[in-house]
Amino acid sequence: VAEGEPGEGREPFELPRFWDALGQTFQVTSQEATKLSLAFSRPPPPSAEDCQKLSEAVQNAILAVATVYYWLPKGQGTTLRKMVRDATTEVVEGMIQLTDTILNAPVESLSQEQLISTGGVWEACEQVSNLPRDNQAAVVSALGACLGVVKDAVEEMEHALVEGQDPYGDIMEDEELGFRGNRDTYWSEADRQLLSSCMGLMKASKACLKKVLAAVKAHGKADSPEQIAQLDDLADIANEISPSIDELALSMYPPVNPLAVRLNAAKLASVLKKVLEIAKASHVCPPSEEGWVQFLTGAVDHNMSKVKNFTQGQL
């Protein structure tokens, strides 16, 4: 499940039929986990014959889950497929853990681990009802997750940059190190000017994701292979924003190396320009959306040129 590729089915693929079948296999797996757990919840243990029946039922349930997952062709969207794959993997891993727990626990009583493992399978199986139903919904979900991470990163950096605040105040205690007039733990005025332009780029990242997410919600469709592929391209490039912001944020802590900051700012700016280009060229961006694409492209260029000006003397 984790590494295999789907077989492109010969029959025409029907998404509603797939979801019905996946929901049923997850439900059966949840029931089999309950039966297995109950059978080993008190002595005496089940007979060899009953164990055989139980293990066959569990195995069949898991094979059915994997089989239905394999029905979902890549053409329905790689973002959707990854989410379904993760949910399926969790069910299989949950059942493996439950079986291991039962094999390693004495049958005198129902162990805490066994209860937790059974609950883990139930939770994994219930996830099927929350999965996005097509690639448009999957990409909305993926972009929403990216936006959440980026918002947190921007807030953290804003908090650290508050005027006069010691960025290491929460880690380094003064009494341990004595007075620190050390430049390595503080930002100079020049550092702060450079970092305000970096913050501009980070805020532009947040705005980009917000706008792209709204456009995918409003205009995104998963009716044709071309639309599905365009949505996947957007999700893939948006996934690069968060790691790029992290790298930039790390280089912004003192002692600041202006060239490292410039390099990481340029990487982030390049990712943002790509996001905007891919959005603009896709079906999620009708003429009514082009204004913000231009505005944000300008904002990225403006902040990047300020970073370049502040670091010119370092080259």
UniProtKB/TrEMBL annotation:
Give start and end of each Cyclin-D1-binding protein 1-like N-terminal domain: 22-161
Top-level taxonomic group: Eukaryota
Main subcellular location of this protein, as a coarse class: cytoplasm
Cellular component annotations (GO), alphabetically ordered: cytoplasm; nucleus
Please list the residue ranges annotated as the Cyclin-D1-binding protein 1-like C-terminal domain: 173-277
InterPro entries in the cross-refs:
GCIP-like (IPR026907), GCIP-like_N (IPR049317), GCIP_C (IPR049318)
User: Where does the protein end up?
Assistant: Cytoplasm; Nucleus
Keywords attached to this entry: Cell cycle, Cytoplasm, Nucleus
Which family is this sequence assigned to? Answer: Belongs to the CCNDBP1 family.
Q: What is the protein named? A: CCDB1 protein
Provide the species name.
Rhadina sibilatrix
Q: What gene name is listed for this protein? A: Ccndbp1
